[in-house]
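User: Structure tokens for both sequences below?

Assistant:
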Amino acid sequence: MGGRKDQEIAPNRFRAAAGRYYEEFSIGEVYEHRPGRTVSQQDNAWFTLLTMNTHPLHFDEEYAAGTEFGRPLIASPLTLAILVGMSVSDVSQRAIANLGWKEIRLTHPVFPGDTLYAESEVIAMRESASRPEAGIVTVRTTGTNQDGVVVCVFERSMLIPRKPE
């Protein structure tokens, strides 16, 4: 099935559709999330302040220069948050709820100035036992940097509504 169509809201007037209903997913489909997102040191500093992450590797350039990385790292929860955010319009814009993340692997450091790209593959689907109007979709999202190096992989399950009748 896959894909989604713009919604005609009046004659010759269309609104971009965002997200998918349960029936619009198929196991094995891969959605490329675009555009990419370049992460800056300012993004990193704000995120560390917002989340009270006090590790100097993320915001103290002198400290970071003395580490094996030689420069600040993007905080890993920020990398995850950006990759999840990039996937929303394709896989969870219509979600009733996120049910969980698992198998989060941070496979390569992300540095200020790196551009992140993401794609999600549908790896499981099932009807909801408690909500007949919805189903559970699980995707594996892979994030890469501008050089195509995988930086993060995770699975996410969401409660997705069925198409209204």
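Moving on to the next sequence.
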Amino acid sequence: MGMRSNPINWKWWMAGGSFVLSVLIGLSAYTFRKGQPAAHAHETHAVSDRGAMQVLAVHPRNGAMERTTTQPGSIHAYESVQLYAGVSGYLKTQAVDIGDRVKRGDVLVTVDVPELEKQVQRYKAGVDRARAVVIQMKARVASAKADREAARALVPQAEATAKSKAAELRFRERQLLRMRELLALKSVDERLVDEKIEQRDAAREAEISAQEAVNSAKSRLAAADAHVQQAEADVVEADAEVKVTQADLEKGELLVKFATVTAPFDGVVTQRNFFVGDFIRSASEGTHLPLLTVQRTDRMRVVVQIPDRDVPYADPGDPAAVELDALPGQKFQAKISRVSHSEDPSTRLMHIEIDLPNKAGKIRNGMYGRVTIMLDHFEGLAIPVSCLTGKPQEGKGNVFVIRDGHAALVPVTIGGDDGLQVGVLSGLRLEDEVIVHPPTGLADGTPVQVDSAGTLTTATAGH
């Protein structure tokens, strides 16, 4: 009996197992038809008793389709500046502390620099002295020009005297000539000839002396010209010295000015590193700690990194909604303000910024949240991406449409997509039944039958 009972038990278990397996397969098929995602529909497509391939289909949806992206966003102050002292010294006054609000131009910190202030006073004295030298040099120029004019006046006077002496010499020579002629005729005494010779020689010496006086007057004029040029050069040098001392003074005054730190804009003090009496090193000496950090908070920057697939659609002016974890239940409407137009090669993300008004001051630097950006907007027919066969190229694609019980391959023009659906510019009508997840082996003209699950909605098929 034990030997005969084993075949009976084996057959009973085989029959029971087949029944359970059939039930499970039936339940699985029912579950697929009612709620299985369309993305796996091609794995369970079957052929009906009449030889038609069973498929799932959707009708195109008419209306607006938006392409959006939701990414993490971090809040930054619209402007943030670290303030350093321009000179080294002891912290003399500090009028603000962390959390204080400041106005543009407010004096925040002063550094005590007494030696520099004394040096500025010396520079001022140097400028005054240099300007006095300029006045002296200009007076010398005037004196030298006066001397030159006096020397110039002596030249024609000496030349006139020289001409007079030359004329007298010629007269004395003619007299001497007549006396010699008369002497030859024995009409005069030889003594008179000797007198004329002496007169002629005196006239000649006078003429030579007058010519030398002319040369001396011209030399004095040339010397006076040189004195004028020298005096004018001294003026130029004195002017240059004024500029040098003036530059030193301005540099000193600027350094003294650097000892006073003012607010560059309206904002709030967010960092303080020193107290009154501390020795402060200037920024040029390599200090790393700023005196204060001031941030502008009436407007904030929301920094978002968007992925490569959304980069072509991001433009300044695109609407954005900002939600912050620290302010639940509040949604801030804004627009993209700046786009970097460049992706980070290491992350394939592009930096964009959104300006967010902060009149109430509730938004703080460092907050974190989510930003939803509407990248594109399309009005027209829309179908799930899963309806497309193959990869679209240059805005063209293909879908299968059910017509008279057969699959018809229809070319369509694509307008845009949101990652789940694509907009169709031409090729489809609102009443068309478009096959979702075209099964392997489906070709133009293949007999098809809509699965008993019926025609899906566009939203359901998209998932």
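User: Anything stand out in the second?

Assistant: Residues 70-103+275-377 form a domain with the Elongation Factor Tu (Ef-tu); domain 3 fold (CATH 2.40.30.170).
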